[in-house]
């Protein structure tokens, strides 16, 4: 198990108490949620600046565990917002259930997240996708993974990889996060 603090980056509308991110926070004090300015009205600048403040405030290296819109926030932050000193703190990011900003289910109240950056991310990453995610297709997730230089994990038909997916504490993803810390 990695000893690095983990910044939890939920998606649009936040993660409820049964979501794997919330379960990880309750089970391990190293996990802390990044507070967004508004969970229901997501603007890229505000979300990226919130992540930037959280990374800057960390006393040392961190990992990121992102879900849904949090994954796009991490990609935008890493490619357009972060200063080199902040980027150097990030040991890796687990990017779960990427939503497609051009897709029909993308939230109307999420602004500025598309088109998604398509350059290599400056730290180790792993993209996790479901075959039946209503917010982003496996092809979209794989294209982002390829562009970002990420490892790719297809976990089969698990919806939006949230509390409804029946993953519980999701130990496999904890293992992928720990592997990023060792990369």
From TrEMBL:
Protein keywords: Hydrolase
Gene Ontology MF, one: hydrolase activity
InterPro entries (UniProt xref): AB_hydrolase_fold (IPR029058), RBBP9/YdeN (IPR010662)
Matches recorded under Pfam families: Ser_hydrolase
Name of this protein: Alpha/beta hydrolase family protein
Native organism taxonomy: Bacteria, Pseudomonadati, Pseudomonadota, Betaproteobacteria, Burkholderiales
């Amino acid at each position: 198990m990695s000893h690095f603090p983990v910044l939890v980056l939920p998606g649009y509308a936040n993660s409820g108490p049964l979501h794997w991110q919330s379960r990880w926070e309750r089970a391990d004090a190293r996990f802390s949620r990044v507070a967004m300015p508004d969970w229901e009205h997501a603007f890229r600048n505000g979300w990226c600046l919130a992540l930037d403040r959280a990374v800057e405030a960390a006393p040392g290296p961190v990992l990121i565990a992102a879900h849904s819109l949090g994954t796009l926030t991490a990609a935008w932050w890493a490619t357009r917002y972060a200063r080199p000193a902040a980027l150097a703190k990030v040991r890796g990011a687990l990017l779960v259930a990427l939503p497609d900003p051009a897709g029909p289910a993308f939230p109307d109240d999420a602004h500025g997240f598309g088109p998604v950056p398509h350059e290599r991310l400056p730290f180790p990453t792993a993209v996790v996708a479901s075959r039946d995610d209503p917010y982003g297709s496996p092809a979209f997730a794989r294209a982002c993974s390829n562009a970002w230089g990420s490892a790719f994990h297809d976990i089969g038909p698990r919806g939006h990889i949230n509390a409804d997916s029946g993953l519980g504490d999701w130990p496999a993803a904890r293992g992928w996060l720990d592997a990023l810390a060792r990369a």
